UniProtKB/TrEMBL annotation:
This is N-acetyltransferase. Pfam families: Acetyltransf_1 (PF00583). One of its GO terms (molecular function) is acyltransferase activity, transferring groups other than amino-acyl groups. The lineage of its organism: Bacteria, Pseudomonadati, Pseudomonadota, Alphaproteobacteria, Hyphomicrobiales. PROSITE patterns: GNAT. It comes from the Bacteria. Transmembrane segments: none annotated. Residues 3-166 form the N-acetyltransferase domain.
Length: 185
């Protein structure tokens, strides 16, 4: 399956909402029970890109969206501003074809270039496929929270994974430039 990566745009929101809807209704990556509307997905998109976090789309040669990935604040307290949380969602037909790996690599590259120092993954349902993807991308398991959600008639665990970006913890960041300017007020 041939695909290209590009910045996601507002025009992608209907397809993003469809992909996420499938994950909400049929998967355990999201702990939402009711899929959000397109309007809600637009608001979430605007909040993420409005803070200059990367939001990436994977599309086939005909322009059909196969998946998307974005980074967002792990927490909004100022000391957390150097850490991002990754999110990757794929259309069912795109899974197992290297698209998630490509989205992850691009997301890591963009977050590193922006100056973030840590990336965390909060993996709902402790999905073995998502854990494997993150391990291949250099993440380490940092914790398993048991019974964090109840969905599809069963209790779900959440795996926490983390990897350093750029200089990680080896140097002090510059608080006067992005992402140092996030959440300072």
């Amino acid at each position: 399956m041939s695909f290209l990566l590009r910045d996601a745009s507002q025009a992608d929101i209907p397809a993003i909402a469809d992909i996420y809807r499938d994950s909400v209704l049929n998967g355990v990556a999201s702990y939402e029970i009711i899929p959000p509307s397109e309007a809600e997905m637009m608001q979430r998109f605007a909040a993420i890109v409005g803070q200059h976090y990367p939001y990436i789309a994977a599309a086939d040669v005909d322009g059909n969206l196969l998946g998307y990935a974005y980074a967002s604040a792990f927490r909004t307290r100022p000391a957390y501003r150097w850490m991002v949380e990754d999110s990757i969602y794929l259309a069912p037909e795109a899974r197992g074809r290297g698209i998630g790996r490509a989205l992850m690599a691009e997301l890591i590259d963009r977050c590193t270039a922006l100056g973030f120092r840590q990336m965390v993954a909060v993996i709902g349902g402790a999905s073995p496929a998502s854990i494997a993807l993150h391990l291949k991308a250099g993440f380490a398991e940092v914790g398993l929270m048991r019974g964090t959600g109840y969905k599809h008639g069963r209790w779900l665990d959440t795996m926490l994974m983390q990897r350093s970006l750029g200089d990680g913890m080896t140097t002090d960041p510059d608080a006067s430039i992005y992402p140092g300017t996030l959440f300072t007020g």
